[in-house]
Amino acid sequence: MHSLLVIANWKMNPPTAKAARSLAAAVASALRGARGIELVIAPPFPYLDAVRRAAPRAKLAAQDAYPLASGPVTGAVSAAMLKDAAVRYTIVGHSERRRLFQESDGFINAKIRALLAAGITPVLAIGEQAQESQAVVPKAIATQLRAGLAGIAARDIARVVVAYEPVWAISTTPGAKPDTPDNATRRAIYIRKLLVQMIGRKRAEGVRIIYGGSVNAKNAATFIARDIRGMEGMLVGGASLKPDEFRVLVRSVAAIKRRV
Ligand code: PEP
Q1: Which of 11, 172, 173 has most ligand 1 atoms within 8 Å of its beta carbon, as the pocket-test mutant?
Q2: In CATH terms, is domain 4-259 a member of 3.40.50.150?
Q3: Which pLDDT does position 258 carry in this prediction?
């Protein structure tokens, strides 16, 4: 049984390194008494080192990486630099970056390759824009997954984390509403089926699929599948900036009795 992966995506918050240190310590305190949780904090680049020191029990993630190793790319940060900064995971393909920076699946694919080569686990975010009925499988899921992982060796794909984030459920989307646990589980099963087609059953079984979209202290535990291989963790935005809420969230997830 895998441990559950909980990633705190702080986005462009908080405003100072001092605030990042105290938020990191508060967020990591959620681990006290919470077994079976792998906690990862994804702060803005300038706070990576401060967060590492303030929350040694949490793992470090970056929110982006540039595909090239070095060179004349003003403003970019390479996977090797992140590795040197003790980063273990990096989010790629987040819907905010796809929208704000017009990031294409090909560019995301190049980032994933660079991260894998540097020994960092990519967290590939995929998800459809608008809510569709449960019976319809959104095309974006297969398109983004296949294109994001195109041409990458099966053994390397097995190291990727897939974060399913329906854009309509992300808290910063106007009119956002949370997905239902049932729908999220169906999507996890579908994503694993796609992975089986791409890399075979054995390797696909090892891929962690997590959920993101308006997860909070009240609903987080409902998104984790207990009896089947569904969602096995979550990418948390807004709630990861509220330590009290985040603590309850992590503990509610840690308390789940899973049988798979
Ligand atoms: C996100 O943007 O990755 C996210 C899941 O945000 P929120 O939890 O705030 O919906």
Answers
A1: 172
A2: no
A3: 86
